[in-house]
Records
---
Amino acid sequence: MPRFGLARHFYFVTVDQQISQVADLQQHEWDPQDKPSVARWLREQQVNGVICDGIHPRFQAALEAEGLWVLSGAWGEVNDVLEQWLAGQLPLLNDDTFHGRQCSYQQVHKRCDNAKGLKTNTAKESNMKIAITAQNPSPESQVDPRFGRAAWIMIYDQEKKSWESIDNSTGINASHGAGIQAAQKVVDHQAVALVTGAIGPKAFKSLTAAAVKIFHGANGTVENALSAYLEGNLSETSTNDATGGV
């Protein structure tokens, strides 16, 4: 599958570490209705890493946040890709340690073992965008406690250290579907995390399916909410336990 975000079928590979050969190969299907987050589903299946072709940054961030390594840029038949990987003939992209080098199974496996037990805060490790609901289009504004019917959605770009404001007046006036509409705006602006007060079940499903992490219960100013997120003082929502409202 050329794009990771469209994949529903995955081959799970078990490798004999002593001889670096495939010991088992099974096909599994991911059901987004049952498990909205593909990253968490893979981790629950005890997967250590993902080999793929193209992958959106927000999916990569979600996988790495779950402790999975990502090897992108691979293409061709599954068996051929596995042979190249085991022979160290696939480059490990997006990784400074092995930048410009060929990466073998042993190298990746060692990195994965060293990373076990570490809780990754992708906000500190990669440039990305964070969405925060706001009552007014300013970082000094108060956080809007609602998601779908928030007046504004502020987007903070970590790389550029800049803010962008998104008018969500259509959500305020919507008779239904406000949460899904707001979720689409967050995804369209390539945010990988959302900080808000409360979120409804439909919006929650839409965002988690797009690998957007959700942090609810925020209050104070938008700037304070951003600081709390970056400092790791906000808890991620793993289930729809906000309020059920929009």
---
Amino acid sequence: MRIELALACWLISASAWGAEPLVDEFLPRVVKVMGLPMTRKVTVKRVSRVEAEQILRREVDVKAAARLGEALVAIGLLPAGTRLEDLAPDFNQQNVAGFYDLREHTLFLIADQPDEALRPIIAHELAHAVQDANVDLLSKMKGSEDATLAFTAVLEGQAQATAALVMAGWLEDHHVAVEGMAGLLSDTTARSAAEAADQAPVPWLGLQLRFPYVAGRALIEASATADDPIARGLLQRPPASTAEVMMPSRLAAPLAGDLQLTRLLPGARASVTTTLGRAQLELLGGGLGEGWRGDRLESVHVGRRLVTVWSVAFATEAQAIAFAEVVKGEREGAVVALLVGTRNEAVKKRALRAFVR
């Protein structure tokens, strides 16, 4: 699912052109900044906000969202009673100004956007179109929750860096040159995303919007060079986790292997198996992800009961204890296992011990 925000209004207003001429005007600029070829035609459609909501809802796997939502409720990352499958599309529809659909390879623009906002939106979305033409984005976004959020940070970080450079160049060509304009425009995008995220009905949903823009911007800045201002290599070799996005110099591979609760519990039906990652861990409290060395979330149904085990590995015992102070206490239908180290066998033993207690 794509979530895009309009940037601030620009100093030069647009004329009443349609979207297609703007795409023709900006695509060469986007390709030049990104240094990547564009091998397919971009289809552009202007739709109403109601139509946009229908398209965004169509992209949601309702059953998968419901399963993930109940697991997140069980471990305390979502409030009780949250229906993620309904909440996410509603929030996204309210904040969307334009989005690039990976399945239809189509740029959708919301018809109620003012003309002066079209240029930065189109520049941003065309960056996604170029990414899509060079990498199979859909396949790369089918990993764990952690890996998908980390890859989304690459996509949005590159897109906002591209849009900022394109718009800075366009403004200069129209005799509106301001020193540091690209940085200012990128700051505006990240700040707008953060402000919108603060209005999310639940913090978890806000993170899905804030992290790709804010952390993604920082990642591109840390990885870019003068010859490669958008860090093209990250498309082919993206960070494996949100921890790596937050600290590119420190690799932290997610834990491998699962508890396989379906084998441990007779009659259990699989629901969710994923890695949440450092960024989501810190929703329980700032700094709690420090020392994160991986985690696995497993959820199964046994009859009418949901059983969830969240195994979290930390580098030191002190970090595990700090996390334990926040999540201590039994949660109905859920167990949080706190671990030290990254050895898979240790994960199984410690988590299982907590589970059978």
